[in-house]
Task: inverse folding
C-alpha cells in the first residue's frame, strides 16, 4: 500500500491511500504544526509490531471513521495520541513518562495497553524526526510518498 501525503495551501493536507485492486481513498488531514496525524500513525505502526488504523486499511478495511472497536488497534490509536501530544510539546518528554501516560490513556478509554518499552518510544521518535525532515522539505502542492505493507 502506498500513502501519498500532499501538502495543502490552506488548513488541510491530504492523504491518498493507494492499494492494488481498490479505488484510491483520500482523507483530509487538518494541519497541526507537526506532521499529519496519519503520518504519525505511519511512524508508530512502522515501528510497533501491532495492527493499527493503517494496518487495518492495508488488510482491506475502508479508510474512514466508521471502523469498529478492536483492542489492538485501539491501543495503537492511544499510543499515536501520546506520540502526537509529545510532538506538539517538542518531543522531549521522558520515555517512562510517556509510557505511564499511555497506560493512563488506555485505562481511561477502556482498552488494553500494548507492551511498550523505552526503546520503542526512542525508535518512534527517530522515525518521527525522519518524517518531519522529509515533510518540512515538501513545498505546498508537493507530495511525500511512503510504502506501508501492514504486516504484523
Result:
Amino acid at each position: 500500500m502506498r500513502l501519498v501525503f500532499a501538502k495543502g495551501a490552506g488548513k488541510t493536507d491530504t492523504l491518498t491511500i493507494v492499494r492494488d485492486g481498490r479505488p484510491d481513498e483520500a482523507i483530509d488531514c487538518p494541519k497541526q504544526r507537526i506532521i499529519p496525524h496519519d503520518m504519525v500513525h505511519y511512524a508508530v505502526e512502522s515501528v510497533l509490531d501491532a495492527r493499527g488504523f493503517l494496518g487495518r486499511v492495508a488488510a482491506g478495511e475502508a479508510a474512514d471513521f466508521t471502523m469498529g472497536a478492536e483492542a489492538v488497534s485501539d491501543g495503537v490509536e492511544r499510543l499515536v495520541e501520546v506520540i502526537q501530544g509529545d510532538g506538539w510539546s517538542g518531543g522531549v518528554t521522558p520515555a517512562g513518562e510517556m509510557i505511564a501516560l499511555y497506560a493512563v490513556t488506555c485505562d481511561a478509554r477502556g482498552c488494553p495497553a500494548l507492551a511498550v518499552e523505552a526503546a520503542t518510544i526512542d525508535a518512534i521518535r527517530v522515525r518521527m524526526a525522519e518524517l518531519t525532515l522529509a515533510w518540512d522539505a515538501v513545498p505546498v502542492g508537493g507530495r511525500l510518498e511512503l510504502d506501508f505493507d501492514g504486516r504484523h
